[in-house]
Write a structure and sequence with these properties.
Distance between the termini: 36 Å
CATH class: Alpha Beta
Oligomer: single chain
Helix content: 25-40%
CATH topology: Rossmann fold
CATH superfamily: Glucose-6-phosphate isomerase like protein, domain 1
Mean pLDDT: 92
Largest sheet: 5 strands, parallel
Number of strands: 7
Structural class: alpha/beta
Strand content: 5-15%
């Protein structure tokens, strides 16, 4: 069975970053959007696929990841809270935070996490990164009420009004969100001077991916 147009594109010889080819990056589905495209996401897209799915211009994804990595490095990863409410983004967020020193926050967002100093789980953030503005709204609202900048991974159907820096890309796919946070970790570490441009990362994109339970080996489930 042939793949839909553009899914099998990309060059094995063109390197996006050290040890990652264009072909390998596109194979994660990083640029495959949804059938809906909001007005504010138009600038980040190319022509739709024949099946109606909008496509993200992945060169703009890479540009925004580099800007975001620089911003996180300057703010200080230790002052940055990275949040996802979706299970498929959990490992990506945790691995990103492990490598960079940022603060991970996954699962349900408890009201007052940013705004109520008396809440036991209160966090002081100078920068907030979210994996999906549609499901991570409460974190964005609290950050916005405090004037804390928000970086968000946005799919073609996301509304971006309350976001300070958009990283355009597929935020629904496990492999795609893993690739985005892997690249963001690499950019953050590079801008912080903790990683050279030609130096390999401790983890691969696959290590950033949240695996489905049925994909795990029997010994991993024990």
């Amino acid at each position: 069975m042939s793949l839909p147009e553009d899914d099998d594109a990309g060059s094995e010889d063109k390197m996006v970053v050290h040890q990652l080819s264009e072909k390998a990056l596109l194979a994660t589905g990083i640029r495959i959007g949804t059938s809906v495209r909001t007005k504010t996401m138009e600038q980040f897209t190319t022509r739709p696929r024949p099946d109606g799915l909008h496509m993200v211009d992945y060169s703009k994804t890479l540009q925004r990841i580099d800007v975001a990595g620089s911003f996180i490095a300057k703010t200080g990863a230790q002052n940055t809270v990275v949040y996802t409410s979706r299970e498929h983004g959990t490992v990506a967020v945790e691995k990103f935070c492990e490598l960079t020193g940022a603060v991970p926050l996954v699962g349900r967002f408890m009201p007052g996490t940013f705004t109520n100093p008396l809440y036991p789980g209160h966090l002081d953030a100078e920068l907030v990164v979210v994996a999906d503005p549609l499901s991570d709204t409460q974190a964005m609202v609290e950050a916005g009420s405090l004037g804390v900048p928000v970086i968000a991974v946005c799919d073609t159907d996301n509304v971006t009004d309350d976001i300070d820096l958009v990283i355009p890309g597929n935020n629904r796919g496990r492999k795609a969100i893993a690739a985005i946070f892997w690249l963001l970790a690499r950019s953050t570490l590079t801008h912080a001077g903790a990683l050279e441009a030609d130096q390999p990362m401790k983890y691969s994109i696959e290590d950033f991916e949240t695996k489905l339970e049925e994909e795990l080996k029997p010994e991993e489930l024990e």
